[in-house]
Amino acid sequence: MGLLKIIKYFKEKKERIEKLESINYAVSIPNELSPIALNFPLHTQPKVSIIIPFFNQENYTWACLKSIFENLPEVSFEIILVDDHSPDAYDFSLVNNITILKNSSNLGFLRSCNKSISQAKGEYIYLLNNDTIVLKGFLDELVSVFNNFDNVGAVGSMLINADNSLQEAGSVIMKNEKIEQIVTNKKTFYPEINYIYKVDYCSGCSLLFKKNDDRGGINYFDEQFAPAYFEETDLCFRLKYEQGKDTYYTPFSKLIHFNGVSYHQMKDNTPTEKDKLFERNLSLFKQKWQTQLDAIQSKTVQERVLELNNDNNIFFYNNELPHFDKNSGDLRLTEIIKAYKRQGFNVFYVVRNNLIDNPYNEYFQRLGVCVYYEHLPLKDFKQFYKRVSVKKSIAWFYAGYVFYKQYGSVREMFDKCFMVYDMVDIHHLRFKRTLENSPNDKFYKRSYDKFLKYERISAEKADLVIPISEDEKSYMEKFVHSKDYLVISNIHYVKIQELEAPSFASRKDILFIGSKHHPNIDAVYFLVNEILPFVWKKIPDLKLNIIGNVKDEINDIINDKVNFLGFVPDVKDQFLNNRLMVAPIRFGAGVKGKIGQAFEYFLPVVSSTIGAEGMKLTDYKNALIEDDAQLFAEKIIQLYTDENLWNVLKNNSEESLYPFSIDHLQNQLEKINMKAKASFKK
């Protein structure tokens, strides 16, 4: 990168960061009362009961209700206002379809919540302070965590101050009962607080939990903590240590919290009395949970975040986030990331020049992956490592060129690091095979030399090498001897029940799927120019449907029997409506995900030898396999017209996927984890 390009890059980066710094939620303190008619929907069986205790401060309660109305949840809900014996008059008569409970005496926050929980109709309880302004998705995003994560006990939101600074991103408890909110040295857009992660507890000013535990008992606050302080901390500990359920924080639920307004207005609570109440309840909390508190070893906030997943850490390194919806290699990596999340790892994904508005960020953040992106004008990469404070980790490099260029700097970031080189496929082998067809092509010769260098050095330097097939493992062993290899292939599992697969007679046409890699481009030309002319003589109305951005590289095929569909967000219908998949790949490397993807939907396949490489397929049992153009065409005709043969292959689809199952993947990752732990002890 030349000097002018460097200057331009940092100038543009500075502008991007300034834009992030200027994020404004445009919320002001509601000093004036502004009642308007609010007609909330009426749900006789609400999913969630929103409980809002208040004591005076009618203006704040109105502002809170209006923000809910302006950001109505998709999930069904009821609203319960709890008047904790406010001496000031109030009037919510313009608000329809809410319930107002009036305490005959001042009960305080905790007992007001318990009273309303007992009368709530919802499966979930959502506690919401009246001194809040909720933002779009505030409630649906909390419910989403329950729907998408296992053993969830409670979920809390990102809390933002009125000046747009971060107030809280969950809270943790450290060694010696030190309690801290996750906020220090962090801004609302920093990567390490913009994904879903476990915490010890979240503030009760925005907290979702189930009304009943698994045995049918009601999840009340413990009234020894009345009137307030440590009630939500105690609840989250009970959920974890008595019910085996975790508390999560999600940044996708956001609200503005005018911190402490509701409690500051409570009767007879001077600062001195509040301090005494805090200390009293802290002492009660320690007495109740001393065994669990003594087990905590973390001395810092970030150490505790890591400790909640047993300090099992993995960093993935790549040049981009996985485009799981566009190519099989990235889909494989996505499944590996999901598997590590299921194993309870803290998962980080690092792309050096990633931007905050990358559309793929959110998908992984919602899985619970901390995705790095630029967020400071200078030194944001090193500062990110410093803030997340990971001392030991597996480092997983996706492809040889990534390992070759980054392994040195990455090793410096950790005290202990287990370096994994994921080959994806052998890139230099792909170029070698291309050269067999184009021996004088200088580009492919340079590419072959370059990637051979990357992949040999990466294999030598790595602690573990991951080939995608036994074939590629054997090939690499010729270059790098006495190396630790562990095969992880593509990951496939059936996406429908076999009975859901449409019949032979209800389908028509054939399917090809591929990205704009050269082997796919060549396959399309081979198919259209050399194979299908034989097929069309026998089946003149047959059409070829092509999915994927291979279309971007082909503009000279004009044929009304060839449909370029481009990127298709959901390929299911194509796999269910076409009669068979074709994969006439003549060169390349690795295991071809398109064939496994066809098996996921019980779609029979005709493939070349290289297309079927690494999948251990048997001709006429799992697929039809042929390399010659005319013979390939004859097998298309045979499979397209022979229902009995078609059903044999369809019925064997699930068996064909056994070596690529999630269970097998989990077993392979466990082996990696054991190797990593052993290396950390050295």
List keywords for this structure.
26 strands; single chain; 3 domains; Spore Coat Polysaccharide Biosynthesis Protein SpsA, Chain A; 682 residues; Rossmann fold; 38% helix; alpha/beta
CATH superfamily grouping of the largest domain: Spore Coat Polysaccharide Biosynthesis Protein SpsA, Chain A
Low-confidence runs (pLDDT<50, min 5 residues)?
262-267
CATH architecture of the largest domain: Alpha-Beta Complex
As a percent range, the share of strand residues is 15-25%
Tally of contiguous helical segments: 22
Give the helix level as a range of percent.
25-40%
| Number of separate structural domains | 3
CATH topology-level name of the largest domain: Spore Coat Polysaccharide Biosynthesis Protein SpsA, Chain A
The tally of beta strands, per DSSP, is 26
Taking the alpha carbons of the first and last residues, their distance comes to 40 Å
Domain Glycosyltransferase 2-like: 49-182
Protein name: Glycosyltransferase 2-like domain-containing protein
Organism: Kaistella jeonii
How does this structure look, described?
This protein is 38% helix and 18% strand. By secondary structure, it is of the alpha/beta class. The chain has 3 domains: 38-307, Alpha-Beta Complex (Spore Coat Polysaccharide Biosynthesis Protein SpsA, Chain A), CATH 3.90.550.10; 313-477, 3-Layer(aba) Sandwich (Rossmann fold), CATH 3.40.50; 498-660, Glycogen Phosphorylase B (Rossmann fold), CATH 3.40.50.2000. The strands form 5 sheets. Strands 2, 3, 5, 6, 7, 8, 9, 12, 13 and 14 form a 10-stranded mixed β-sheet that branches. Strand 10 (171-174) and strand 11 (178-181) form a beta hairpin. Helix 12 runs parallel beside helix 14 and helix 16 (518-538) crosses helix 19 (629-641). The chain is globular, with a radius of gyration of 30 Å. 44% of the residues are buried. Mean pLDDT is 92; it is low at 262-267.
